[in-house]
Amino acid sequence: MNIVSISKISSQGLLLFVLMLFICSPVSAANQVDIDINGIIDDTIRVCTAISLDISIENDFIMSGMSLGFKIWSDEGVSAELDDVGGDGPSRAVIVEPGSRLYPPESVFDMTGLIVDEFNHDGPGSDSIMMGGVGMMGGMQTGPLQHMLTVYMSVIDREYPAVKTICFDSCFIPPSGAFVFVNSGGGSLQPVTLWPEGGLCFPVGWARNSPPQFDEGTPTELVIDGCPLNTITLSATDAEADQIVFGALEVIGGGGEAIVDDHGDGTCDLSYAPIPGDVGQEITIEMVAFDPYVGLPCATIYDVSVTVLSFEPLGVDCGATYVPGATNNPITKSDICGAGGTCSGYSYAMVSGPGSIDPVTGVYTMLPSWMDIGSWTVELEVSQDGQADTGSFMVEVVGEECCAGDPNFSGNVDVGDAIYLINYVFKGGPPPVATNWGDVNADCTINVGDIVYLINYVFNYGPEPQLGCVY
After folding, report:
1. Of 149, 306, 314, 333, which sits with the fewest C-beta atoms within 10 Å of its C-beta?
2. How far is Cα 89 from Cα 110, in angstroms, rounded to an integer?
3. Is-above-0.85 flag for pTM?
4. 107: Cα within 13 Å, side-chain hemisphere
C-alpha cells in the first residue's frame, strides 16, 4: 500500500507534541470518536471512486492536545491513496470542517497547527495516518459529537477484476498511542480501539469505468540494434468500449526517450531513442493505458523491456535529429556523440548553422530571437586521434506565443502534455520545450498546479492554457 505523504512535522514540533501528550497521567473522561465512511455503494468500496472518512468528536473537557491514529490495510494488494482536494493549509487531503470546534486549527492548536503525517509500510501489513496537534492558549472547547475532520482517499487495485478486501481501524502509532486526548488540566485519555472486533472491512469492487487492459500477445520487449529506431505496436481493450489513452510514464534504467504515437483506436506505436550509454543496460519503459473518464490514478501499467544491442551514431544521436524550440527559450542538445558509442575523448566543432557547441562536452546550445524563427540545419564535426566525422540535425524555431500548454511541442494540447509535465515535475524528466508553454496557469512557476490546470482543460472543459511568464 502507498499512502502519499501530505505534510511532515519538524523534529522540534514532534518533540513538543510527544512531551505534551505523555508527561500527563491518565484520567477518565467521556470523550468519543465516531467515524463514517462515505462513498460506499452497496456495502462495497469502488476502485477509482473517491471515499471519505468523516471524523466526529465529543469532548467534555477543553482539549489542549489530540492525536488520532488510523490504519488501512489489505493482505490482497489493494492500496489507498490520499486525494488532493485543495483547501487551506498544508494538509490538502485532510480538511478541518469549517464551523466546527476545531476550526481554524491554527487557533485551536496554537503551538503546532494541525499535524498530518503518514507512516508507510510497503508490502503486507498496514499503513497509518496520524493527525493532531498541541495548543497552549485556546485548545478545543467542550461540546457534543460533531463532524470536525474529513480524510479524502481513493482505493487503487491494478489487478482487475479480482474481488478483494480493504480494512480500516484505529491503531497504535508509537509513541502517541491509538487515540490520545489531553485536557488543559494536564490529564490524558487513550480510548480503546475504534472497532474492537478487528477493524471494519469492505469488499473492493469496480465502478462502471474499469481501466483498459493490455491485450494478450502485446509485445513486452523492444530490441534496438543500431539505426534506425525499432518500433512495436501496443494494443488494449476497454470493457465499456470507452476511449483509451496511451502514454509513457517513465523510462527506468536508460537515458534515452520513449516516443509514443497514440493512434486513437486502442493501439499505439512505441519507439525508443537511445543514447550511447544505453548499450547493455537493463531498461524498462513504464507504459500506461487509461480511460480519461477514470483518470491516471487508475491507469493500467504495462512494462516493456528495452534491449540496446548496439548504437552507432555518426556525429549525432541517430534517434533525435530534430530539435524544436521557441524564441527567448534556450535550446539544448546534449546527446551528440562521436562514432564508436562513447562520448569520452572527442573534440567538437561547429561547421555551419546557428548556435554553438562546447568543444569538450559536445553540448549544443542556442538562445533564439525573433530573427531566428524558421528551420535551420546545424552541421558539426566530431574528431578524435586525427579522425573526423560530420553530422547534422535540424533546429526549428517558432514564436513563443504559438504554443501555450504544449510543453512537448507536439502541435496539440492533449493528455501527452499532462504526462510530460508529470514526468518533469515529479520524476526529473525533460523540461518543456519552451518553459513558458508549461506554465499554463501563468503563476511564474511550473508545478502540480499546472498539471491540474492542464488536465481540467483537456478533460473537463476548463480554461485555456495561458502563455506563462517563466523564462
Report:
1. 314
2. 14
3. no
4. 9
At 364, the amino acid letter reads Y
Judge contact between 166 and 201, C-beta under 8 A: yes
375 and 414 belong to one structural domain: no
Could you give the CA distance from residue 74 to residue 56 in angstroms, rounded to a whole number? 25
Q: What is the DSSP letter of 339?
A: T
Would you say residue 91 lies in a domain?
A: yes
Q: Which residues contact 53 (CB under 8 A, 6 or more apart)?
A: 35, 36, 37, 70, 150, 151, 153, 168
In a domain, 315, yes or no: no
Q: Identify the helix (H) or strand (E) that includes residue 165.
A: strand 164-170
Cα radius of gyration rounded to whole Å, the chain: 27
Domain assignment present for residue 3? The answer is no
Same domain, 238 and 188: no
DSSP letter for each residue of 279-312: TT--EEEEEEEE-TTT-GGGPEEEEEEEEEEE--
Q: What is the pLDDT along the chain (471 residues), one digit of tens a residue?
A: 333 222 333 333 343 344 334 333 333 345 788 888 888 877 888 777 778 889 999 988 888 888 888 888 887 777 777 776 654 444 567 889 999 999 998 899 888 888 887 765 544 556 778 888 888 787 899 999 999 999 888 777 656 556 688 888 887 666 556 677 877 766 667 665 677 677 888 888 776 567 788 999 999 999 987 544 578 999 999 887 888 989 888 899 998 889 899 998 999 999 887 877 888 899 999 998 887 766 565 678 899 999 988 765 444 443 457 888 899 888 888 777 654 444 456 788 899 999 999 988 888 899 999 899 999 998 888 776 555 677 788 899 999 888 899 998 888 899 889 889 888 887 778 889 888 999 998 888 888 888 888 888 888 788 899 998 866
Q: Running DSSP on this structure, what letter comes out for residue 228?
A: S
Please say which residue of 206, 231, 259 terminates a domain: 206
Bridge partners, residue 376, by sequence: 395
Distance of CA 121 to the CA centre of its chain: 19
- Are residues 371 and 410 part of one domain? no
Domain that holds residue 106: 11-206
The identity of residue 23, as a single letter, is I
Q: Considering only CA atoms, which of 194, 175, 167 is closest in space to residue 32?
A: 194
Nearest to 254 by CA among 311, 214, 302: 311
Type and span of the H or E element at 365: strand 364-366
